[in-house]
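Supplementary Note 3. Input sequence used for the single-chain structure prediction.
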Amino acid sequence: MNRSSLGSVLFLAIAVAVLGVPGCSKPQAMNETVAEVNGDAIKVNELREFLGVRGGMAPVAGIPAEKKKEALDRLIAGRLLAQDARSKGLDNTDEFRNIVKESAKSALITGLYRKEVASKGNVSKEDIQAEAKKMKAADNALSDDHANARAQRSVSESRIRKIEEDLIAAANKEFPSEIHKVVVDKVVKGENVPDDTVLATAAGDNVTYGHVMKELRKVAGGMRGVEDITRNPIAVNRMLTREATGKSLAAYAKKQGIEGSEWHAATRTEIERAILIDMLAGKVLEKEATVADKEIEAYYKEHPEMFAQHGKKVSFMMVKEQLRGFLTNEKRKSAMNAYIEELKKKAKITVNEKVLGEV
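The predicted structure, written as discrete structure tokens, is reproduced below.
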């Protein structure tokens, strides 16, 4: 996770439900431990979410066993890196504390989602069977098991979307936001606007021009056209809506008593883990940040087949910077993999193969 993005996450981290769902999997499968890393458990629901099942409520459909194992390996690596970061005292630094503080809104919102999904996310066996019947009618080659698994996932995701929509509507009703259109029009026209100018308000808090520009630049990622996106009326209004809705949701979460709850605590733990992984990765990869020109040229000469277009060789200068980025990423990946392998040698890792098969 990019450290700079943590403070701006609103409700993208969808709830990890902590309840059983009737249907194809065992009712308590979501809460089962699929692996332990030095005593730190990885639950089935976390692996399901990692594999793309929103909420982790339904079994994963259509993913081979080796892909599940690869995903679990990545989660195990994350645990090892976070534990190593704590052992090095990275969680006792001003940098860590500041990023955690920036993520406070995200923790409240995600905690609220978790609570809502846990209380309202259950789906009935009848709904799953009805959806499976539709799927089999559309594809008669679909087996009963695959139809039921896909149906459970589809019905569960539909329920989660409804929960999200209702929650946002309730938050906006309780803490309505207002976008100051006259000022926004000045922004998109390119007029000079001070950073502390208020573009929107929500829950007694302000969304300023400076904050919105910072978030839009993060989205652009330093690519060409960054100035265009900060003047694009659609982009500006979407960012304003996102930020204002986030403030309304955070205020609503507080009113619902999320702060200090088990939902809040679990979310904070995950956010802190992500921050620690990012901080440690920065330190591990610090020496791998640059690639010398001679390394780039050597790679270019060693792989001529990669640089042919329409039967003609692409010049070195045309691809030099692209190659620099590619080789930098490869060096970083290699360095991080080597670091993780060293951590694994010293760790106590157990995997429950039976539970992994039920993911």
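The mean pLDDT is 86. The radius of gyration is 24 Å.
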